[in-house]
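Many introductory courses stop at the sequence. We go one step further.
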Amino acid sequence: MGGGRDGNPPGADETLHLRVDALRADETMQLRAPAPPKELTPTGGRAERRRGARSAGRKRSRSRLLGPLAPYARRIAPYARRLKPVYPRPGRTGWRRWMPSWRQWTGGLLASFGLLGAFLVTAYAMTDIPDDINSYATQQDNVYFWSDGTPMARTGWVQRQAMPLEDIPQDVRWAVLAAENESFYSDPGISLKGISRALFRTVGAGDTEGGSTITQQYVKNVYLTQNQTVSRKFTEAMIALKLDNKMSKDDILEGYLNTSWFGRGTYGIQRAAQAYYGKDVDKLDVSEAAMLASLLKGAGLYDPTLGKANHARAVERWSWILDRMVKIGKLSKRERATYTEFPEPLKTNPLYDTGEQSDYLVELAASYAKKAAHLTDKQFDLGGYQIYTTFDRKREKALTDAVAKARQEARDETPEAAEDGHYGAASVAADGRILAVYGGPDHRKQGYNESNATTVPAGTAFLPFVYAAGLEHGVHKTRSGSATPIGPDSVYDGDDGVPVTTPEGPYWDRSGKKVAAHNDGGKSYGKITLREALAKSVNTPFMQLGMDAGLDKVRDTAVAAGLLRSSMGPQVPALSLGTSTPSAIRMANGYATFAAGGDHTEPYSVVRITRNGAPVALNTPRPKRAVGARVAEQVTEALTDSFRTAHPDAAARRPGVSGKAGGTEKDTAAWYVGTADSVSTAIVVYRIDLAKSLEPLPLQGLAGPAHSVPYALWSAATGLG
C-alpha cells in the first residue's frame, strides 16, 4: 500500500490505489476515504448556534408528526408514481405528449371534490348561528289604543308588528311561498341552483343576484347585513343550513313574514296589510295577498301607486303569482277565475299620523308606560308593545274641537294676544284616569305640552286646598296649644285690604311693610263664612286662613290631593292665593280627590300593556287618603255653591256639578276647574312667548270678557255647553 502521489499521507478527497497480487496486473481497486467531520470551532456566533438548534428542533418535530404517516406513504407511493406526470410522455406524438393521462385527470378531479367537500364540512362545523339578532330587523312599532279598544296611534323607528303564524291565513302564506320559494317545505334551507347562479353572476358580471330561499332571506334579514358580496352569500348559506336543522319550517316562515320589507316604511305582513289596504292581515283575500307578495321582489319597483311602469309590473307579477298558486295546487282554477281585477291599494299609508292631538296623548302614555312597567328606553324602542290607554275618544274630540274653535276666535278678535296664546286642558276621573288632554295645536311645531306645563300660577283656583287644610287640621290662634277646629260656617273678615296677622301680630314682609290681602276689584264683603267666601271667591279670608292653619299644612294638603311638591310656591302668605304653578292635569287631579271623597289616586294614562299579546306587568296607582271624607264633602259643597252662583242656568239643567273660576293678581292666567259626573276638568288660558322665555305675559283679552273663555271650554268638554 503506497502513500499519496508525492509520498505524503493521502488527503481527505484523494483516492487510495491498492494493488492486489491476486488481481491482474492491470487491475486496481479504488477506495474513497470519507472526509473527516469538521470540528466545531468557537468562530460561529451565538445567533448561528441558536439557528442551528432551531433547525434541529424543526427536523425532530417533523419527524414526530410525519413518522406515523410513513407506512401509509409507502403504500400510496406506487400509485402516486403512476400519477406523476412524465413529460414528454413516451409513446405519444405531437401535442398529446404533453397532456395528462385519464388517470391523472380522474385523480385530480376526485382530489378537487375531496378538498371541496372537506372545506364545506369544515365551514359548516365552524359556522355558528349568531346569538345577537339584528335589532333593527326585529324592531317593531308600538300600538296605542283608546279606552274603547280601538287603535289610536302607532309609533316607532319602523312600522312592524310581529304576528303569530297561526294568525296569518294559509292563502296569504302560500301567496308568498308561490312568489318566493314554492319548495320551502321540502328544501334543505338553501338552493344550490340559486347560489350557483348568484356566484356566476358575481364573478362573471360583477354584481350579485338573488336565488335565495326564504330561509336564506330570513337569515339575511335577522342575522346579517344587506351587503351584496360573495362572502356574505356564503355565510348566509352556511347559517341557513344550520337554521333549517335547528328550527321548524313554520317558525322560519313566521320569522320571514314578520321581518321582510314591504315598502311604505313597513316591515312584516301585518303592517303591510294595514299600509296598503287599511286592514289586518287576517282580513286579506288571496288577490290582495298576491299583490303584497309581489312587493317582496322590490317595493320600489312593484308598488303600483308610484307610477305607470310600477303599476304595469305589479299587475303582471300579481297575475303570475295567482297562476303559480294554481300550478302548485294551492288555488283552484275556479277561484282563480274570479280574480280578474287588480286589487288597487290605498294611495297613501294610513298608518302615518303625526302632528295631530294624538301625538300629545302618545307622549304622555309612553312616558307613563315606561315608568310603570319598568321599561328602559332601549326596550321600549325595540317595540312590539300594545299600550291600552285611558283616553276617551269622545271626550278628546269634544275638548280638541272646543279649543280649536277658541283659538280661531282669538285670532279673529285679539290677533296680537293670540299669537302667544296657550290653552292647557285636562279631564281626570275620580279614580285617577286621564280621559282627555289638550296639548297644543301641532306636535310637529310645538312639542311643548300645554296640558302638562307647570308655568303659570293657579291663582284663586287654589283656594279649595287652603279651605281643605283649615277644615282638616284646624287653626292656631296661639303658638302653643292644640289646634282649634273650624267648619264651613266659621266667620272671617272679607273686607279688602285686611292686614294678615300671626299670633304675635301683623305679618311683615322683608321690606318692612305689613302684608294685606286684597279682593278682586277691591271689593269688601264684611264678615263672611268660609263656605260663602269660597263660593264667591273672596280672597282675604283664605289668606288669613292659610296663616292660621299653617302654610306648611296648606302645602302638604295640596300635595296630598295631587299637586306636585316641585310646583308649590314659597311659604309666604301669598301661597294661599295661588302662587303655585300646577299643570292642568294636576289641577284636575287635585279637584278629583275631593270628588273621590278625599281619596287621591295619582293620575295615570295606561291601564294595560302587552307585548305581542303577552301581558306586561304594570304598576297601577292605588288610592291614598288625602283628606277626610267629611272634609272632601264640605269642599265639594262649597264648589257646588260656587258653580250655582256663577252659572245658575247650567246648574239647574245638571245637578251635582261643582266648579270654580280662578284668576291671578297680574292677570297672566285664567282658570276654570270643576267636576261633573265624577270627572274633573281643568282649563287654563295664558300667554307665553316660547321664543323668548317661559315668563307668563298679561292676557290682553285672550281669555275673553270676564274670563269667559275657560268656562266655555270647560262646559264644552263636560257636555254642558
